[in-house]
């Protein structure tokens, strides 16, 4: 297990955004995280990546309790997230954006640059090297978000809806990219609403609903689960 | 995939990435300044030149935290005043050379910068700005209060005892060389920061602090480093000012106007760029000095009206600042590689 969440609970005032969520991720797997809007997916990401502190429960990463660590420290031990609403450093170029990521493992600008270029090559942003990040298309912004995170050399990458808003061609490219990232030994936890995409890429699925885990398992089993269909997929999905 | 936490490579190799063109500009400025100092005998024009170099230096120092890190300080007069008072009091009371006093003042200002930055950078929002203003005010009041020690509102005159070791020169031109050296130091430090990891991290924090944190950047720590460097360099300027003007007093040394002026020069020239504060100071300082000399005796306040009008026009025509506008124009005209993007004063994405 590279990551374990144990009984993670998070309140916003009186509202429980997460209620006793427990699960684990094996090293090298792709785990999909699905659920309706407001289910607590992004809140779970915030707790796992250190932006929120859980009110109860703990997060264990690589056999170490990390619940007390802040986001930068978790990033340093290899637990890195992207944002659903992408956050490019708008006035910096693509290369500079990715170098901010690669500077985590080296203070040498030459080395940082080399590694940033590698990450850009992997996600297919090499042609946009000197473009200001604010003038990228949404699809390129998503790639940039991934490239920057990759440049920090993560062990576990939390991807928050990197496929939303992409056209079918871009979607296929992104799926291919995620497989290549996994091929490099990075474990992935992926939030996604596009079922076709998440079903093909994930080894396992985790379903949240009203802050609770309602199902976990192989995509086929989860998609047939009655509670999941009721809460998220809807009857049409079963028939289709 | 390795998970080495230790950094590889050297942070000092950043100097290799400093653009040659910037070094040529700096060398050109140094030569030009030296030639003017050598040939021009008119004391007023030399004074204008010295003030240009002086403001360019401390506005550059301000820019390290205000521009690179995007943390608006409106209390850099605090660091400036600490530098001026420390070296002057040490010189007058203990006979310590202002050259040494300058370094001690810088160290003290660094401590104060830490006291300001450490608590306020943990918070987001206007807290840092408010704390800087408050600190400058408190220091001014303390200086007035401790009048046995600081001579209060009477101020301190630096005795005219020319000697290199005393940081006092008979020739006005000598101050040009010192100011040039000071500008060279602040610009080189800025260039190094801009091209090193520190500069990239500060830019990231300025652009989006959450995204920076997610990439492993301890934002509070790097902002603190920026204000420490900035405070130190600003204090050096305080000593220079005291040794050149020969008189310091709390109302002017710790004034909010002075802090705002530093910020304004950097914003006009191009916030967060190395050459922005220099360009801003080179535009604003002569304007201020010449208008005051030419119009100061005419209608009361007329020079300020003209001065304000010119600044408004510059900000309307070049909202990004002088240097980014020139860079954008150069890119459009010659299709060169994109210049390093500047921070937008509005902080939009």
What report would you give on this structure?
The complex is a heterodimer of chains A (240) and B (349). Chain A is an alpha/beta fold. Chain A has two domains: 3-78 and 156-239, P-loop containing nucleotide triphosphate hydrolases (Rossmann fold, 3-Layer(aba) Sandwich); 87-153. Chain A is built from ten helices and ten strands. A six-stranded mixed β-sheet of chain A has the order 6-7-8-3-9-10, with helices on both faces. Chain A is globular and about 50 Å long. Helices cover 70% and strands 1% of the residues of chain B. In chain B, helix 13 runs antiparallel to helix 14. Chain B starts with 19 loop residues before the first helix and ends in a 15-residue tail after the last helix.
List keywords for this structure.
heterodimer, A: 240 residues, alpha/beta, Rossmann fold, 2 domains, four-stranded antiparallel sheet, 10 strands, 40% helix, B: 349 residues, mainly alpha, ABC transporter involved in vitamin B12 uptake, BtuC, two-stranded antiparallel sheet, 70% helix, globular, disordered N terminus, disordered C terminus
Distance between the termini of chain A: 35 Å
CATH topology of chain B: ABC transporter involved in vitamin B12 uptake, BtuC
Number of strands of chain A: 10
**Which chain pair has the greatest contact?**
A-B, 47 and 41 residues
CATH class of the largest domain in chain A: Alpha Beta
Chain-averaged pLDDT of chain B: 88
Q: Which residues of chain A sit in consecutive blocks of at least 5 with pLDDT less than 50?
A: none
Largest sheet: number of strands, sense, barrel closure of chain B: 2 strands, antiparallel
In angstroms, what separates the terminal alpha carbons of chain B? 34 Å
Specify the helix fraction band of chain B: over 70%
Helix/strand-derived class of chain B? mainly alpha
Order of helices and strands of chain A: EEEHEEHEHHHEHEHEEHHH
Low-confidence stretches of chain B: 1-6, 345-349
- CATH architecture of chain B, by name, is Orthogonal Bundle
């Amino acid at each position: 297990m590279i990551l374990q969440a144990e009984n993670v609970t998070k309140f916003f005032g009186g509202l429980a955004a997460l209620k006793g969520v427990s699960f684990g991720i094996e090293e090298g797997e792709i785990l999909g995280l699905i659920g309706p809007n407001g289910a607590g997916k992004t809140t779970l990401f915030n707790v796992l990546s250190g932006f929120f502190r859980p009110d109860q429960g703990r997060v264990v990463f690589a056999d170490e309790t990390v619940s007390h660590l802040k986001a930068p420290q978790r990033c340093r031990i290899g637990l890195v997230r992207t944002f659903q609403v992408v956050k490019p450093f708008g006035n910096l170029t693509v290369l500079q954006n990715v170098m901010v990521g690669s500077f985590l493992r080296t203070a040498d600008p030459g080395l940082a640059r080399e590694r940033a270029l590698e990450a850009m090559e992997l996600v297919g942003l090499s042609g946009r090297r000197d473009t200001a990040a604010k003038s990228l298309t949404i699809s390129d912004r998503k790639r940039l978000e991934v490239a920057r995170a990759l440049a920090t050399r993560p062990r576990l990458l939390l991807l928050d809806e990197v496929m939303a808003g992409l056209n079918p061609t871009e979607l296929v490219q992104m799926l291919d990219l995620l497989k290549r990232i996994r091929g490099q030994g990075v474990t992935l936890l992926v939030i996604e609403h596009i079922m076709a995409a998440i079903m093909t890429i994930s080894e396992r699925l985790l379903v949240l609903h009203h802050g609770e885990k309602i199902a976990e398992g192989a995509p086929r089993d989860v998609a047939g689960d009655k509670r999941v269909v009721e809460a998220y997929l809807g009857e049409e999905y079963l028939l289709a | 995939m390795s998970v080495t936490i230790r950094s590889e490579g050297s942070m000092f190799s950043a100097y290799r990435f400093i653009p040659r063109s910037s070094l040529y500009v700096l060398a050109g400025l140094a030569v030009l300044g030296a030639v003017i100092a050598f040939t021009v005998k008119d004391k007023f024009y030399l004074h204008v030149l010295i003030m240009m170099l002086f403001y360019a230096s401390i506005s550059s120092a301000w820019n390290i935290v205000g521009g690179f890190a995007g943390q608006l300080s409106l209390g850099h007069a605090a660091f400036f005043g600490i530098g001026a008072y420390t070296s002057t009091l040490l010189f007058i009371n203990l006979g310590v050379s202002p050259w040494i006093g300058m370094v001690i003042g810088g160290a003290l200002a660094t401590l104060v910068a830490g006291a300001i930055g450490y608590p306020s950078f943990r918070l987001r929002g206007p807290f840092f700005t408010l704390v800087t203003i408050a600190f400058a005010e408190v220091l001014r009041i303390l200086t007035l209060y401790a009048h046995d020690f600081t001579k209060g509102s009477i101020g301190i005159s630096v005795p005219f005892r020319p000697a290199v070791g005393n940081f006092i020169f008979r020739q006005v031109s000598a101050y040009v060389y010192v100011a040039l050296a000071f500008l060279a130091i602040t610009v080189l430090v800025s260039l190094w920061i801009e091209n090193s990891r520190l500069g990239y991290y500060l830019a990231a924090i300025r652009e989006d602090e959450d995204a920076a944190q997610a990439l492993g950047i301890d934002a509070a720590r790097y902002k603190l480093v920026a204000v420490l460097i900035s405070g130190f360099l600003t204090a050096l300027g305080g000593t220079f000012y005291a040794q050149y003007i020969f008189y310091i007093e709390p109302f002017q040394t710790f004034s909010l106007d002075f802090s705002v002026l530093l910020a304004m020069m950097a914003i006009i020239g191009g916030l967060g760029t190395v050459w922005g504060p220099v360009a801003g100071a080179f535009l604003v300082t002569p304007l201020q000095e010449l208008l005051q000399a030419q119009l100061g005796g005419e209608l009361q306040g007329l020079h300020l009206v003209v001065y304000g009008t010119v600044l408004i026009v510059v900000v309307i025509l070049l909202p990004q600042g002088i240097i980014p506008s020139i860079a954008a124009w150069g890119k459009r005209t010659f299709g060169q590689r994109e210049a390093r993007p500047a921070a937008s004063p509005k902080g939009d994405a």
